[in-house]
Every structure is written in structure tokens, then in C-alpha cells.
Specification:
alpha/beta; 4-stranded parallel β-sheet; 4 strands
């Protein structure tokens, strides 16, 4: 059985290093993007099994990147999990409405 592939869209180096280490130790292949536009491109090219989406990204934010990914027929069923250090009341609902799965 092949490794499950996770696309992690995150601009913070320390966060990427930590999450990469944890996921690789669990046997996942980790694809990475540092901004929303690159994340959308990699998702389109690589069709990962799961996307971990930082919300505060340079260029287009995670909400816009999620909307662009979910607008593509080939990507609509890929689960997207929103990650943010700055969650405010109502953010979860806003991220779900944008297309995030959790």
C-alpha cells in the first residue's frame, strides 16, 4: 500500500518543520507550499489525500485557497483541515462555509 500524501500549506518554517517531522514519523508523504497560490497549484498537480491549510498566508489567504481548490471537480472531495493560531469566535463556521472540512 502506498503512503498517504498530505499537502501542508504553511508559511511558518518552524510549524512546517514540526508538522513534517510528526507526519513523516507516522508514515505519511508530506508535500509543502509556502503560500496559497502555490498550494492551489500543488493540489491541482499532485491530488493529495488530505490538505492541512494555514489560514494566514501571504498572497491569497487560506480561505481563498480553499475556495479555489474546492471549485475544481478533481479536488472537491479532498478533505481540508483549517489551521490557525488566531482563531476568533465564528471562525470555524466561516472556514467550513469556505469549504474546509474541519
Amino acid at each position: 500500500m502506498s503512503e498517504k500524501r498530505i499537502l501542508y500549506i504553511e508559511d511558518n518554517f518552524q510549524n512546517k518543520r514540526l508538522v513534517r517531522k510528526i507526519l513523516k514519523a507516522k508514515g505519511f508523504e508530506v508535500l509543502e507550499a509556502e503560500d496559497g497560490l502555490t498550494g492551489v497549484e500543488i493540489a491541482s498537480q499532485e491530488i493529495p489525500d488530505l490538505i492541512l491549510m494555514d489560514i494566514s498566508l501571504p498572497g491569497i489567504d487560506g480561505v481563498e485557497a480553499t475556495q479555489r481548490i474546492k471549485a475544481q471537480d478533481a479536488l472537491v472531495k479532498i478533505p481540508i483541515i483549517a489551521l490557525t493560531a488566531n482563531a476568533m469566535r465564528g471562525d470555524r463556521e466561516r472556514f467550513i462555509a469556505a469549504g474546509c472540512d474541519d
